[in-house]
Design a protein that fits this description.
six-stranded mixed beta sheet; alpha/beta; 18 helices; globular; single chain
């Protein structure tokens, strides 16, 4: 029997000059500083709502976060979680797992341990700082930034909603080729919407200022791996093979709120309106995560904002989407697993209920860089390794990744392609505009 090849090493801050090192050294402390500043700015609000208890809770949360920032900057060991939240035991088991890895250098620490682990751990500790300090335990420290991103992207949102509502007027008259072209357009809009990431910009403005539809052709050269044809074939075949008892189901594992979420909602509506899918399940985060990731509150808030907008086509989109939720053809789900440190190869073991749910899908669309990192284990893969191999046996259903490149992991390139880009553009993996959308769809 052939030996199973060893997995490559995890990306970590040990590799100076890497994007992981830059993130842990600079971006994560900046994000923590912004979180502390946000709590400071809301001190009066906490007092007005909760009196002295609110102010005391704010002080305790800031003290907790200041200590966390110091631990990070001085590369202290990662400590077990001391709260009693439902996922704490799983986090502490994962810390034990990191301690017992064959190549571990003693106690896991911020710069020595896998980047994916310590970055997720920081966001979980931010959540603990609030969750352990009632009465401000439900305060989302990232909410303002997500709302600002949405409002500053209004021009692009209007352009996209207008385009889509015009498309809907004639969608029944489109032939197969025209439907395919529209699907490809909206997949690309959803891809490039992934540029709007507040964790990448450490909370700085990252809104979509102009219509993404106008620049799609110019962006095509930046798409390094493109499997849109496979996605189209899969959906068309699923539609042909469906029975009265079986619906064609697409699941979108969401990334950022703001403009990116709107682009995902438009794509989901197109899938229903074109009858390429009968139902769409959206998967979001159960706690505030990675600055701009979508929670249930963000999802519902965005649809309500659109529905009450003072623009006909924005409003039409929002009202229709509320209707989709009420009819049950759109479903929002969150699950604790999406905010654990595990990569997705552990899903069937750690969250068998979620894995079973994903197996019901005809197509899984994973949005964004963090989902891509978790799909591939966030490892130092060779660029030409296949996506299938990097998934490390994670295949609940056919899947596809829509991601703009913001980290050091990349697979599925043609032999020599990565090296060629590296020679002409040494910082290609740090550029938010380098798009890697449809990595090979994993077909069962």
């Amino acid at each position: 029997m052939a030996a199973v090849p060893a997995l490559p090493v995890s990306l970590s801050g040990r590799f100076k000059g890497s994007f992981a090192y830059f993130t842990i050294k600079d971006r994560l402390p900046q994000i923590l500083t912004r979180v502390i500043d946000t709590l400071h700015r809301h001190k009066n609000e906490f007092f007005e709502e909760h009196g002295e208890k609110g102010v005391e809770a704010e002080k305790r949360a800031i003290s907790f976060l200041s200590k966390l920032r110091n631990e990070l900057q001085t590369d202290k060991p990662v400590t077990p979680l001391e709260d009693e939240l439902p996922d704490a035991a799983l986090w502490n088991q994962y810390l034990d797992y990191q301690r017992n890895l064959p190549n571990s250098n003693g106690e896991p620490s911020w710069f020595q341990s896998p980047w994916l682990y310590v970055e997720c751990y920081m966001y979980r500790r931010i959540h603990a700082a609030l969750a352990q300090n009632p009465p401000i335990d439900n305060f989302d420290v990232f909410k303002e930034g997500k709302a600002q991103n949405f409002f500053e992207s209004q021009e692009a949102v209007i352009a996209l909603c207008t385009y889509f509502q015009e498309l809907l007027k004639n969608i029944k008259d489109l032939d197969e080729k025209q439907l395919q072209e529209e699907l490809f357009k909206l997949l690309q809009v959803s891809l490039w919407g992934n540029k709007c990431d507040l964790s990448f910009s450490a909370g700085e403005d990252s809104s979509q200022k102009s219509s993404p539809l106008q620049s799609l052709e110019n962006m095509v050269p930046y798409i390094l791996v493109n499997d849109m044809e496979k996605v189209w074939s899969l959906l068309v075949n699923a539609k042909k093979n469906r029975t009265e008892r079986s619906n064609v189901r697409v699941d979108i594992i969401l990334d950022n709120a703001g403009f990116e979420l709107v682009s995902d909602l438009v794509l989901a509506d197109f899938l229903l309106s074109s009858k390429l899918a009968d139902e769409v399940y959206f998967h979001g985060k159960s706690i505030p995560w990675y600055v701009s990731d979508t929670t249930k509150h963000d999802f519902n808030w965005t649809i309500k904002q659109l529905g009450s907008a003072n623009h006909m086509w924005m409003s039409r989109c929002g009202i229709n989407w509320e209707g989709n939720l009420k009819k049950g053809v759109w479903v929002f789900r969150d699950h604790m697993f999406w905010t654990l440190p595990h990569d997705f190869s552990s899903t069937s073991e750690v969250a068998p209920d979620l894995y079973a749910e994903l197996q019901k899908s005809n197509l899984l669309l994973f949005k964004g860089d963090l989902n891509y990192r978790k799909l591939t284990g966030d490892r130092k893969w060779e660029y030409s390794v296949t996506f299938h191999q990097a998934l490390n046996k994670f295949h609940p259903a056919p899947l596809c990744s829509l991601r703009t490149l913001k980290s050091d992991t990349q697979v599925g390139l043609k032999p020599g392609q990565g090296e060629q880009i590296q020679a002409s553009e040494p910082d290609w993996m740090k550029f938010i505009f380098r798009g890697i959308p449809l990595l090979p769809s994993l077909m069962k």
